[in-house]
Amino acid sequence: MAAASSIRFIIMDSWLKMGRLASGKNVSACSPAENNENISDLVNTGQERQNKLVSEIVLPQERTTSKKKKYDELYLSFGFIPVGMAENPDGQCVICNKIMCNSSLMPAKLRRHLDTNHPQLKDKSLSFFESHKEVQKTGVAALYKYAKIDNENATEASFMLSYRIVRAGKSHTIAEDLIKPCMTEIVNCVLGEDTAKKITAVQCSNNVISDRIHKISDHIQDELICRLKNSNMFTIQLDESTDVAGLSILFVFVRYPFKGSIEEDLFLCAPLETNTTGEEIF
Question: 52: burial class by Cβ within 10 Å (0-12, 13-18, 19+)?
């Protein structure tokens, strides 16, 4: 559609430039042969001009990606070790921990960094930077290990706190409003400020406590179902009760053997929409 419009525009432009309208000659008065010849000339002229315009259009070149550089062990003599992806790593200085992008992994740029930022180390041997490399790896591994352990301990403490709150029937906001501030002050007085900072990592907001309680409930339900499936036999006992609002509630208790003893758990607690008769329950 765009090409047809362009051809019509070019034909009209050529028509005006040929002076047909300026000369006052009536095209309709020409013979059919002359009309066909003129139209053919216009079409050919328009096609040539269109081809010329298309040939002059500069198409955007495809974006060329720079060639990725690989890490060379000689870069360690300038104090740089590889970090990031193994295929195209970046370089990290073992002295100041500055990271230089992959395109800067060239001896001239690495030496410039060493001479400019650490001029007192430019004459150091390779063994000096190798020792700093080992210290760097050990420090990163230890940091990851401690951070992982601290996060796991903080998450476990959050679940234990949520379990105690729901067992006591307290509001979920009590953890953030009362329990956590008290724990922080007590640990700060007894064990010091550094240990008290770990208490702040324990998440105990209202939403977190609610989420933890739901996850604990789902886990208990899955564990109970798994025990019943693995048990050879079990019995159930039904009971009904009424809450303070007058709503009838059905309780289902289950007894089953587990590790040489008889266990009893609450299997179901659900409201009854109608009466509590046996016919309505079953």
Answer: exposed
